[in-house]
Amino acid sequence: MIASITLAITLNEVILALLLNEVSCAVLDISREFRYHPQLSKCVHHVPPNQ
Fold first, then answer.
1. Where are the beta strands (DSSP E) in the chain?
2. Are strands 42-45 and 34-37 parallel, antiparallel or unpaired?
3. How many helices (H) and strands (E) does the chain have?
4. Does residue 50 fall inside a structural domain?
5. What is the pTM of this model?
6. At 9, is the secondary structure helix, strand, or coil?
């Protein structure tokens, strides 16, 4: 019972972290320096081609 609760909390934290990562990436994406990379499931630093 305790193990399943712990697992649920861990899953919630992972999902929350992924959501926060995507949201923070979307915010950072306004500056056009960061992009959310779906394959890597994380924010990657993106340098615009014109620089």
1. 34-37, 42-45
2. antiparallel
3. 1, 2
4. no
5. 0.41
6. helix
